[in-house]
């Protein structure tokens, strides 16, 4: 059994009672584990597995596949504020998907784990912003050795990875200024209200 710390990046139903939990761990990088019985009401995993949680986990590596067995998970950080705001949830999911797209499974990437942890903590405390999105992309490009002073991080990542997760377009639309009223309000319109 392997102990480590990991951030939950995705949850996928496997059966009526089990989940596949995708983790970005400090020691093993991106891994997938099966949480058997996690969807049962009286499961030992009840309340311990949710998106963006950081947990101390114990898992058994599989010899036959890349789907390992989760033995125990104890949350240390829940980041509940993220799940209370749709834009924050979308931005956090974008960070996780972008990392999943950029790294190979079962390969340790401690600097990327730290980047994801810091990014999720920032969104949890300060909310979602275009600045957080672009900073994450810049840092990811730097860590991957793709940074260029003349080319935007988004362009470099798009060229290196083939494409970026679709959440990015929704986020950009959300962060764009409201264009529903393109003209300044006329002073006489105030009296009509």
Taking Cα atoms only, what radius of gyration do you get, to the nearest Å?
20 Å
Measured between the Cα atoms of the first and last residue, the distance is 68 Å
**Order of strands across the biggest sheet?**
1-2-3-5-4
Individual helix count: 6
Largest sheet: 5 strands, mixed, barrel
β-strand percent reads 15-25%
Secondary-structure content class? alpha+beta
Task: Note the overall shape.
Answer: globular
Count of structural domains = 2
Query: Count of DSSP E strands?
Result: 5
Helicity range: 25-40%
Low-pLDDT stretches are 179-184
**Rounded average pLDDT:** 91
SSE series: EEEEEHHHHHH
GO cellular component, one term: bacterial nucleoid
Family: Belongs to the RecO family.
Protein name: DNA repair protein RecO
Pfam family, one: RecO_C
What do you see in this structure?
- It contains six helices and five strands, in the order E-E-E-E-E-H-H-H-H-H-H.
- With 193 residues, it is of the alpha+beta class.
- A five-stranded mixed β-barrel has the order 1-2-3-5-4.
- Helix 1 (86-102) packs antiparallel against helix 2, helix 1 (86-102) packs antiparallel against helix 5 (167-175) and helix 2 packs antiparallel against helix 3 (130-143).
- Residues 179-184 have low confidence and may be disordered.
- Residues 4-74 form the DNA replication/recombination mediator RecO N-terminal domain.
- Belongs to the RecO family.
- This is DNA repair protein RecO.
């Amino acid at each position: 059994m392997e102990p480590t710390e990991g951030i939950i990046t995705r949850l996928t139903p496997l059966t009526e009672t089990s989940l596949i939990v995708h983790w970005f761990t400090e020691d093993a990088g991106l891994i997938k584990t099966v949480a058997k019985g996690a969807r049962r009401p009286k499961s030992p995993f009840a309340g311990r597995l949710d998106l963006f949680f950081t947990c101390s986990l114990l898992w058994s590596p599989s010899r036959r596949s890349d789907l390992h067995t989760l033995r125990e998970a104890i949350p240390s950080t829940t980041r509940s504020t993220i799940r209370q705001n749709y834009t924050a949830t979308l931005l956090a999911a974008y960070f996780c998907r972008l990392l999943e797209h950029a790294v190979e499974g079962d390969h340790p990437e401690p600097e990327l784990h730290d980047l994801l942890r810091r990014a999720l903590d920032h969104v949890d405390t300060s909310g979602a912003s275009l600045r957080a999105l672009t900073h994450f992309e810049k840092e990811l490009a730097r860590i991957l050795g793709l940074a260029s002073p003349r080319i935007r991080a988004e362009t470099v990542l798009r060229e290196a990875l083939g494409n970026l997760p679709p959440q990015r377009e929704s986020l950009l639309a959300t962060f764009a200024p409201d264009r529903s009223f393109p003209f300044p309000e006329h002073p006489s319109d105030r009296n009509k209200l």
